[in-house]
Sequence to fold (323 residues):
Amino acid sequence: MTAKNSAIGQPAIAVDAPPSVARRGPGSGVVLAGLGVLAFSLTFPSTVWGLESFGPWSLVALRGVLAALIAGCALLAGRVPVPERRHWAGLAVVAGGVVVGFPLLTSLALQTSTSSHAAVVVGLLPLTTALLSALRTGSRPPRAFWAAALTGAAVVMAFTVQQSGGEVSGGDLYLFGALLVCAAGYTEGGRLAGAMPGWQVIGWALVLALPLAVAGAVVALPLEPVHLTAHGIVGLVWVAAGSTFLGLYVWYRGMAEIGVPRASQLQLAQPLLTLVWSFLVLGEEVSGAAPAAAVAVLVCIAVTQRAGSRVSRRTRADTPVRS
Fold:
């Protein structure tokens, strides 16, 4: 079988990759990654809702348990074979970064930070993910890509700092820690999505983290008060089914088709989407500068996608066909 890799400057995917991971083209990859960004943009508002009913440790543990049950049922229904031993280290990085680390650190941060302020995390996440991907895979996006990525990150940072009044909250250390572990999980998950379908990447990562999630729930639930509300239940269900499973499913599938650097830059739009949801769902105030920031971010995204697309086409043209 011939497998083509559309990632920017990444090595050719192994020829023994299963047929289910065959690329469908950059257009579908952009759409899938964009749907993932849309799902992720609801994570912070949903977490705020979830914290109305659960403590941060309980919320993260229950989120992991519910998402792992969904993933486990999907894997069993599809009769998916257990991944090869060489993939488990990467799956552990995904589990530690996006299943445990990011949800826990952001939940702790959102006890003292607003959802709009926490958007600063994803403001830097695209650039951090692109940097880690370049280090991990040896990819070399063009200068235009990096210039647009840096500009987009600067625009998002300036907007979120202006939105928070220039103050540094007590949860910022949690947020920056979440940034690093999530970028590592995205990078490793994007690499693994070249060897197995994206939903299996997040599915096996969730199953791997299930024992830790169950232990966390057993310990945390008796210690943290639970006050069930409609908001709390909806928030828990969304972060488990929407953000953790469905969102990461389309996200990793999109990254497998267009590459980690290009997909990561789509997340430049995530802070602005989160601010919109924070205004609509939580009633938080949004600055009048939001439209200008949105336009600037969209321009930066367009530049990164065009630069990455040119490199992807050149990479595919230069990649020898194997059979």
Summary: Residues 8 and 18 are 21 Å apart (CA to CA). The chain is about 75% helix and 0% strand. The first helix runs from residue 26 to 41. Confidence is low (pLDDT under 50) at residues 1-23, 313-323.
